[in-house]
Q: What sequence folds into this?
């Protein structure tokens, strides 16, 4: 069945770079696109960006200068890298297939020294 | 970017009561292909969002038929006909007619009396 699972560090220091991995199963990254969505504690959902089936990407304009999404098709993995982290980036980070048809469990990332 | 305004922010309901949530868009969500890409999600406490309704009114597999969606253009409604205890959580509308970016409403928290 379709599954997505995020992984990465739970704690990142301010100004450092966040690296997250979304490992998928049950579908191919060449057939379905994957988005990253984040949710600060107690707040709503924010779309971050998407990697399309052909490998091109699109980003939230507010994050574009700091964000990169890539993938490894052979490993069924999608990667998120975001630099210059600040405390406001503390959130649960989700990957999702298509436009939210399937979601990962999320990974909580805290930005703190 | 499309702004989705959800009301009310909080909804207090008794078991069996029917409730409605409104989602208003800053611009029409009718795509040039004739589809309206407005979905509804439910996020239970501590869980990932799960899809409820897609294309305004189509129920995702396994979603009880007490849930219904309606609307067109800029005004959309999610109705629960006979709230059950398992329905508590935060409901989000989301659009991807004008995508990227995918945008979410601010959420409506359903609480049970």
A:
């Amino acid at each position: 069945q379709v599954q997505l699972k995020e992984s990465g560090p739970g704690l990142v220091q301010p100004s450092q770079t966040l690296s997250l991995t979304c490992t998928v199963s049950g579908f191919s990254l060449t057939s379905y696109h994957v988005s990253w969505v984040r949710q600060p504690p107690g707040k709503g959902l924010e779309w971050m960006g998407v990697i399309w089936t052909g490998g091109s990407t699109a980003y939230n304009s507010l994050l574009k200068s700091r964000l990169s999404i890539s993938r490894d098709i052979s490993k069924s993995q999608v990667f998120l890298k975001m630099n210059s982290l600040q405390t406001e980036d503390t959130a649960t980070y989700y990957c999702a297939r298509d436009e939210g048809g399937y979601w990962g469990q999320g990974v909580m990332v805290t930005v703190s020294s | 970017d499309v702004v989705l305004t959800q009301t009310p922010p909080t909804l207090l309901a008794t078991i069996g009561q029917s409730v409605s949530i409104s989602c208003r868009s800053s611009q029409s969500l009718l795509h040039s292909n004739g589809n309206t890409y407005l979905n509804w999600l439910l996020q239970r406490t501590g869980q990932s969002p799960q899809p409820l309704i897609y294309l305004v009114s189509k129920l995702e597999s396994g979603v009880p038929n007490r849930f219904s969606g309606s609307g067109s253009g800029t005004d959309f409604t999610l109705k629960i006909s006979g709230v059950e205890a398992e329905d508590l959580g935060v409901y989000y509308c989301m659009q991807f007619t004008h995508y990227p970016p995918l945008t979410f409403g601010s959420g409506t928290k359903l609480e049970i009396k």
Remarks:
- The first strand of chain A starts at residue 3 and ends at 7.
- Chain A touches chain B at residues 35, 44-47, 49-50, 58-61, 94, 99-101, 103-106 (CB under 8 Å).
- Chain A has no helices and eleven strands.
